[in-house]
## 1
Amino acid sequence: GFFDQESCIDYLISKMRSKGYVNSTFKEEIMYRESVSSTAFGNFAIPHAMKMNAKKTGMNIVIINDPLEWGIHQVNLVIMLSFNKNERYIFNEIFEPITMILSEPENIKKIIGCNTYDEFIHTMVSLLE
């Protein structure tokens, strides 16, 4: 598991960098966004940058069994988002619906119960419909 918020952020960023989604300034942007205002809401967090400087638009998810301290919250689910400015429309299509889904505790239980990527995608799609 992760021992703190930053180690979780580092893990997610390293995966996104290795797949070519973000560059070396992404962590700075993520940490800046968190310092302005935490991206945790209830028991989930959606870390993202304020600028859409990512090479590619993407999503990286981690489900945490033992809640992780994230600012004043305890989170079980972290969804890191990266956005490329040429795909800014995706931000509006994705961000709002995801936060709506996650504001329902029942939905979070379903998502946290997922064991595979396919199961997660299937659950998210069914909740979006």
## 2
Amino acid sequence: MARKEKPWGGRFKGGTDREVEAFTASIAFDRRLYRHDIEGSIAHARMLARQGILTAREEKAVVAGLKGIRKDFDRGALTFADADEDVHMAVEKELIRRIGDAGAKLHTGRSRNDQVALDLRLYLREEIGHILEGIGGLKEALADLAGREIDTVLPGYTHLQRAQPILLSHYLLAYREMLDRDESRFRECRVRVNVMPLGAGALAGTGIPIDRRVTAELLGFPEMTRNSLDAVSDRDFAAEFLFDCALLMMHLSRFCEDLILWSTEEFRFIEISDAFTTGSSLMPQKKNPDVAELVRGKTGRIYGHLVALLTVLKGLPMTYNRDLQEDKEPVFDAVDTVRASLSIFTRMLGQVTFLRDRMEEAAAGGFSTATDVAEYLVKAGVPFREAHGIAGRIVAFCLEQGKTLEALTLEEYRAFHKDFREDIHEAVTVRRSVGARDIPGGTSGKAVRQRLREIGRRRARTKR
């Protein structure tokens, strides 16, 4: 490329090596920022006009030219060329081609360093909104599903061993709690994203009499960056965004792990719709939970993006360094992956059939109500540690005799402690065990219904 075509080429006598141009170009991925780049440029042009740096005629030409470029990109009438260095130069080049010298004035008072920081913040502000919508949709789906499955019992697990019976609705709402935290983190992240860096210039600000407050107001930023050095080198907000994505994907991955296990013949707790499963090219009987597996797999990809960006940032001297070009691909891919995962997971969950009888049968196995035996004795005045030991010996006896807790006679119970009464048989049933956990946050039907009412009231307030 000839030197005269480079907007920064005045100081250079020779041309750039073609391989260097290909290696340093970012247009292949930062082209997706064109709408945000143009939005920022329109605000910048209007501010320059208010300051008397552009004439009213020049402002009108610049704004109309930028809007026309955006429209042409939107409808595919204009495309980026491989020779374009980055999205900023591509837009500026096209603007100058369309309107002439007025377009060459647009970059007054700014640098690509503060421009790209602005573009990325505008992009993430918008995309966080879309992710929050996805989280909200999944939260609603979970609450609705919990309401439909309010009485379904399944085994709760610790160490992947049957522990105590719980309600499926309680299980579903546990993931809703995780999503509440995810939602809160993304909202807080958006506050830190929503800070206007334009005006920081390359690193030291600008001697041109711009008005940053006007630009911030035009772009809807409640705050401006307070240090130009920090403004052009800060990518904390991008790393925070990736961390929030990683936690959200971790929650989806855990959920998927359960669904994958539950869909196996060994569990047989659920049936996932054919629309969200695939078969085997060799084994005709297979029905594989590929969607859930891919969400689980893509979680590792998001973790990688977080570590990649942190690694890029860890050794950078003040201020802007070209290394920061590597911030965009992790962020862009994380946005695409998280939005797609939220969408397809929510749709898949709506087409899962819960095999209730099998779940309740499993919930009754593995001596899952042994804790209720201990608590029965505690209510009779036996110290918990002693009651725990008695219950453990009863389980050992059942194993030796091939019996369940429900099948033991009262005489057999009383051989272990005199305070057992006939109502012990009711106490060790699955339904009674679940109903006994009637505390705020517990798994009883009463507690879960109360939580669903709280969620319903909150949803109603939000929709007003």
